[in-house]
Design goal:
Layout (H helix, E strand, L loop, with lengths): L14 H13 L3 E3 H11 L9 H14 L4 E2 L3 E2 L6 E2 L1 E3 L4 H11 L17 H17 L6 E2 H9 L4 H5 L17 E2 L7 E3 L5 E5 L2 H11 L6 E6 L5 H4 L11 E5 L4 H16 L5 E3 L1 H9 L12 H7 L6 H12 L11 H6 L2 H4 L2
Helix pairs in contact: 1-2, 1-3, 4-5
Protein name: Wadjet protein JetD C-terminal domain-containing protein
Organism: Kribbella amoyensis
Amino acid sequence: MTDVDPAEPMVGLTPRAARLALAIEDSGRGAIPLRELWGLWDSADPSSAGRPERRAALARALGELNSVGLIRVSKTSDRIALPHLPTRVTVPRNASRVTAAAVARSVAWRPELSWVLQARLTLGQVTRLKSVNTWLRDHGKEPDVLPLRERSLAIFSHEKELDKLMQTGVFGPGRLTLDLLRTFRTHPPLPSVRVGRGPVLLVIENDNTFSSIRAALGADPGPVGHLAWGAGGAFEASILSCRELDGISRIRYYGDLDVDGLRIPRNAAATAVDEGMPEVLPADSLYRRLLATKDEQANQPRVPTDQAVSLTCWFRDPGLALGIIDLLGRGVRIPQEALNATLLRADRSWIHDL
């Protein structure tokens, strides 16, 4: 949650109560018992921790939120000490939007943010946009362009706030843009080693299998020029770093036979198409050998057929795709470590099938 200590107090609320209001909204809960309220209060007002007035401060903040309609307190109370506290609070539907609209009307918005007055926003969004408004006022003409998390820290005093805000409706045409905030998304580097002179980049999901395949490639890596560690889900972003590798015209991927192991390369493949890069295709020969190990781990969630089809749509071999769809439908997975170093060395024909 972003620290909130606005120059202009939130309409009808002290800064402490405003921070608690955002904590409650960020929790996404419609009803919150007192034991969880204490945790939210600690994040909203950490300075009160351990102080005798902590209980009284929470009571005052809850009273403020109740008076402006952001919460409703229960009729039952915790009476172990004074002041008494409600045993739970509920969050009325649309209460945040009503208060957010009032807060928005109290702000002198920059021209770039004039759309805020017409938008249906939450209290948290308006509060965060107030920080953007202040930054535009004080630094809007500066020429520097910073990476996303550096810019987020400059605006919100928290490096990950923009990541979260980009997933909401405040970003888009006519609203916030990366250009307006003079920032850009970076893509993480792809850890890779040169193993040969071939045109293939072979990406491996997990580090142990990366080590085994590197050893199996040995002095004759066939068409493989670069071997990379995808680092699990990181590959969905680090795919863009593949453009920095010399002599690569084919990208092959090998990972676990489970939902995440298939989702990651499928999404990376879509990014590669969008960016005009070489196709990301499955290392079919490795997947066939992995499927043949029968080293299945059961008790996984059964994957509906339509979802399994979507996860395997990037496979070129229909028979292989059907085998994986069956695997997922039965609620089992096979980790790529099942195709271990001994098996990889015993039959190296997979290298030349890439």
